[in-house]
């Protein structure tokens, strides 16, 4: 049985490195600034470039206007709605977002509004799920909202392997659910060939995985970046996919199915 991989990227270079190891059932999660708190809404130029360069790979576009809190103002929601439309027009198969209330619960109203804007597309509720107080309550809330495809989660843990017990419980809970809107669980965080093999042993109902297979590379212009860092321009380091890490995961999945 196929086991799709979703690869988190923020550049065309990373997509090209990943391309040889991916097939039609796999996806890219497309973000900007993966070093800035987990990724933000990417430029639509990047999305269009990926669509042209990797036409066989589905694109899931992050819709997150800023780092930090997952509680969004009405003005931010306006921007997110426009970003969903832009992602659709740029050729994305789906979008990724996560919206919470000030109490840390799933924001049903905003999530429903965004899902309606994404009608006909896939929707992933991202790791905002991992800061909710109750996985079961959050899961049941999301299962009641039309349009959500999957939940991206580490099982409320630092890594998916550490959260394996919750991931297993989540998949079993959803399998036994009578919801009209079935969801799947997309495990994330710390996934590599070794951890994925163990994770699938501990949570055997998982059907796909999300990973970055990445490393951080130093800037080519270190002296200029050092000056820029003093001026508040950031460190200049880049997040880049490591082909060898992805190859190892691909070989594991192809071998074990």
Overall number of domains:
1
Strand/helix succession: EHEHEHEHEHEHEHEEHEH
- How would a crystallographer describe the biggest sheet? 8 strands, parallel
Termini separation (Å)?
6 Å
Number of distinct helices: 9
Key words describing this protein structure:
TIM Barrel, 9 helices, eight-stranded parallel β-sheet, 257 residues, alpha/beta, two-stranded antiparallel sheet, 38% helix, globular
Describe this structure in words.
- By secondary structure, this protein is an alpha/beta fold.
- It has a single domain (5-214, 243-256), classed as Alpha-Beta Barrel (TIM Barrel).
- It contains 9 helices and 10 strands.
- An 8-stranded parallel β-sheet has the order 7-6-5-4-3-2-1-8, covered by helices on one side. The chain has a two-stranded antiparallel sheet with strand order 9-10.
- It is globular.
- GO terms for molecular function: copper ion binding.
- This is Copper homeostasis protein cutC homolog.
């Amino acid at each position: 049985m196929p086991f799709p991989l979703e690869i988190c990227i923020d550049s065309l270079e990373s997509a090209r490195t990943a391309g040889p190891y991916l097939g039609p059932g796999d996806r890219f999660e497309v973000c900007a600034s993966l070093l800035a708190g987990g990724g933000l809404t990417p430029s639509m130029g990047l999305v269009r470039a990926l669509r042209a360069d990797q036409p066989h790979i589905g694109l899931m576009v992050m819709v997150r206007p800023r780092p930090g809190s997952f509680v969004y103002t009405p003005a931010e929601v306006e921007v997110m709605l426009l970003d969903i439309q832009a992602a659709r027009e740029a050729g994305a198969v789906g979008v990724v977002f996560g919206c919470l209330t000030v109490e840390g619960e799933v924001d049903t109203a905003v999530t429903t509004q965004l899902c309606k804007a994404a009608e006909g597309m896939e929707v992933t509720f991202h790791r905002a799920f991992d800061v909710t107080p109750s996985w079961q309550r959050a899961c049941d809330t999301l299962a009641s909202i039309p349009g959500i495809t999957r939940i991206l989660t580490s099982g409320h843990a630092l890594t998916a392997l550490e959260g394996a017990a919750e991931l297993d419980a989540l998949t079993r809970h959803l399998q036994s659910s009578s919801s009209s809107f079935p969801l799947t669980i997309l495990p994330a965080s710390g996934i590599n060939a070794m951890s994925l093999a163990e994770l699938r042993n501990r949570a055997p109902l998982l059907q796909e995985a999300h990973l970055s297979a990445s490393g951080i590379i130093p800037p080519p212009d270190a002296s200029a970046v050092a000056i820029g860092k003093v001026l508040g321009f950031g460190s200049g380091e880049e997040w880049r996919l490591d082909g060898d890490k992805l190859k190892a995961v691909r070989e594991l999945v192809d071998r074990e199915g």
